[in-house]
């Protein structure tokens, strides 16, 4: 059953249109990928979904409820969290203060302690660095903190914008392993990645976004075929 | 000499409170609220108009009035401007400031209104042969207590955590669930309350309240938040303190040349900003090559 649905979404900045009718769906526990070249509109898509970029048309549904045009602070309370591109952790605050801020978006205030314990289990490094300034963590640790901070809000849908950005291959593998575990726990996970190969081998479906439109939707098997993926990604036979 | 130091600390404390009020609003909105002056003025008028009441009641009235005025300012003038160019917001805040000055003129008249407020503070006492004014000691105690309370609020409470996060990156704070309307309204209310404390100390020292009463201290507090670092609440308070204390000390050191105290203070401000362009507590003090 569909938990999250984006229907014919259009968005842009000023006089420039960036997205021209984008649609996608995700079910509980699914891991969905969105890949595409620079300037395809991937971050704009997430921005429009969470309310930081104005929508110009279309709708976003979460568990059947239309959340289009709602404010970011209300959307997170409905169960949709975003881990933004570049992590955007609060470098001047401690790790625990960053996580405490993440609790602000919880619907169920009674489960705060349990939520913190769960993310500490998933990311033990955050326990070690609990009182350290977040800006002093390594890139991989900061990414883990950004994901943990979104998770403590207990989202039903977790959006991640370029989670591999600036990370070494070993750290990327580690981060993606945690994302699989998060999806297996029942959260719908939608990952935007420019480096397509990172997400295509994990995602049940991978959407290819180019020039503001969904150009193709590939199954895991289709995406494993490099020629098919390249054709969808570049819009030709891959050369 | 001791009195001069106490006066410097006392004036520094008052300017720190004024700068903190400005810094709180700047942190969450990137708005330099020039109309903060009119919050100090309305709180001062309230103290004068209610001087016949017990002092505590009069102070509570002034805190409530200034906080309400700040809230109305945010709802009516600034809410629609969120995310606008900072220059646009600054110009609007000039407009709000001038408009309110004219409203005060219509309501209270252009001539100063005066009344004796907390006359017990205008006296002096002697310690070890040194005469010390009560006002300077009370002001220092008040400033320290309020700054400690603000420190607790900012560093130890959820509201404070949200204020610090919003000052750093408001959009990300909203993505985490920080309610923008509530947070910004809280910042304005607190800045109104701080303006009322500043008003109280000023009215005791100079009970001649006119429509431009809060202007001078606000301009210098604005200088203070730039000197301390606009992106940091600690920086705002520190900058405000430095400006107030330096101005007070210059008035003593320069003797008959005190008419140049402002000029010398701005020389010091320029030197500080040349060395630390982003303010004393800013992390981004290096100059970009052009």
Automatic annotation (TrEMBL), chain A:
Stated family: Belongs to the ABC transporter superfamily.
Q: Which InterPro entries match?
A: AAA+_ATPase, ABC_transporter-like_ATP-bd, BCAA_Transport_ATP-bd_LivF, P-loop_NTPase
Q: Which GO terms describe its molecular function?
A: ATP binding; ATP hydrolysis activity; branched-chain amino acid transmembrane transporter activity
Cross-referenced Pfam families, in alphabetical order? Answer: ABC_tran (PF00005)
Q: What is this protein called?
A: Unannotated protein
Q: Report the residue ranges that make up the ABC transporter domain in this protein.
A: 4-236
Q: Which UniProt keywords apply?
A: Amino-acid transport, ATP-binding, Nucleotide-binding, Transport
Q: Which PANTHER family match?
A: HIGH-AFFINITY BRANCHED-CHAIN AMINO ACID TRANSPORT ATP-BINDING PROTEIN LIVF
Query: Biological process (GO) annotations?
Result: L-amino acid transport
Q: Where does this protein come from, organism-wise?
A: freshwater metagenome
From TrEMBL, chain B:
- One GO BP: D-alanine transmembrane transport
An example Gene Ontology molecular-function term: L-leucine transmembrane transporter activity
- Mind telling me which GO cellular component terms the entry cites? plasma membrane
Provenance organism: freshwater metagenome
| Official protein name in the record | Unannotated protein
User: What UniProt keywords are attached to this protein's entry?
Assistant: Amino-acid transport, Cell inner membrane, Cell membrane, Membrane, Transmembrane, Transmembrane helix, Transport
What's one Pfam family the UniProt record gives for this protein? Answer: BPD_transp_2
Q: What is its main location?
A: membrane
């Amino acid at each position: 059953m569909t938990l999250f649905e984006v229907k014919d979404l259009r968005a842009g900045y000023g006089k420039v249109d960036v997205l021209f009718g984008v649609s996608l769906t995700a079910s509980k526990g699914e891991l969905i990928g969105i890949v595409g070249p620079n300037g395809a509109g991937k971050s704009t898509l997430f921005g429009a979904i969470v309310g930081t970029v104005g929508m110009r048309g279309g709708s976003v549904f979460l568990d059947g409820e239309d959340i289009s045009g709602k404010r970011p602070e209300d959307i997170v309370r409905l169960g949709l969290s975003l881990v933004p591109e570049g992590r955007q952790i609060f470098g001047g605050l401690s790790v625990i203060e960053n996580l405490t801020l993440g609790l602000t978006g919880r619907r169920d205030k009674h489960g705060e302690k349990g939520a913190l314990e769960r993310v500490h289990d998933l990311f033990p490094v955050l326990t070690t660095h609990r009182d350290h300034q977040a800006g002093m963590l390594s890139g991989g640790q900061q990414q883990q903190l950004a994901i943990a901070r979104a998770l403590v809000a207990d989202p039903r849908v977790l959006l991640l914008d370029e989670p591999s950005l600036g990370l070494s291959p070993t750290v990327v593998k580690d981060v993606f392993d945690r994302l699989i575990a998060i999806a297996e726990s029942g959260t719908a996970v939608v990952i935007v990645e420019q480096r397509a190969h990172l997400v295509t081998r994990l995602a049940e479906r991978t959407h290819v976004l180019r020039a503001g439109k969904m150009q193709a939707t590939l199954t895991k098997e289709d995406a494993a075929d490099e020629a098919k993926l390249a054709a969808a990604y570049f819009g030709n036979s891959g050369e | 000499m001791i009195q001069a130091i106490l006066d410097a600390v006392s004036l520094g404390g008052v300017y720190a409170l004024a700068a903190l009020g400005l810094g709180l609003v700047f942190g969450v909105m990137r708005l330099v609220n020039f109309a903060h002056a009119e919050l100090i003025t309305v709180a001062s008028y309230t103290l004068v108009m209610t001087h016949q009441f017990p002092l505590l009641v009069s102070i509570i009235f002034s805190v409530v009035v200034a906080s309400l005025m700040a809230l109305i300012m945010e709802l009516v003038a600034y809410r629609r401007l969120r995310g606008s160019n900072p220059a646009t917001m600054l110009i609007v805040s000039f407009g709000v400031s001038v408009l309110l000055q004219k409203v005060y003129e219509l309501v209270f008249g252009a001539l100063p209104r005066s009344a004796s407020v907390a006359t017990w503070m205008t006296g002096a006492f002697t310690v070890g042969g040194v005469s010390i004014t009560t006002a300077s000691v009370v002001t220092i105690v008040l400033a320290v207590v309020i700054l400690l309370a603000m420190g607790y609020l900012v560093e130890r409470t959820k509201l404070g955590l949200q204020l610090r996060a919003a000052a750093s990156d408001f959009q990300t704070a909203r993505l985490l669930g920080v309610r923008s309307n509530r947070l910004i309204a809280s910042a304005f209310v607190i800045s109104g309350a701080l303006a009322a404390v500043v008003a109280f100390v000023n009215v005791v020292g100079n009970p001649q309240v006119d429509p431009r009463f809060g202007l001078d201290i606000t301009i210098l507090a604005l200088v203070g938040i730039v000197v301390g670092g606009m992106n940091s609440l600690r920086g705002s308070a520190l900058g405000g303190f430095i400006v107030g204390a330096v101005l007070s000390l210059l008035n003593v050191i320069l003797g008959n040349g005190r008419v140049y105290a402002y000029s010398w203070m701005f020389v010091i401000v320029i030197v500080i900003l040349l060395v630390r362009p982003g303010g004393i507590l800013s992390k981004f003090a290096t100059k970009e090559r052009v």
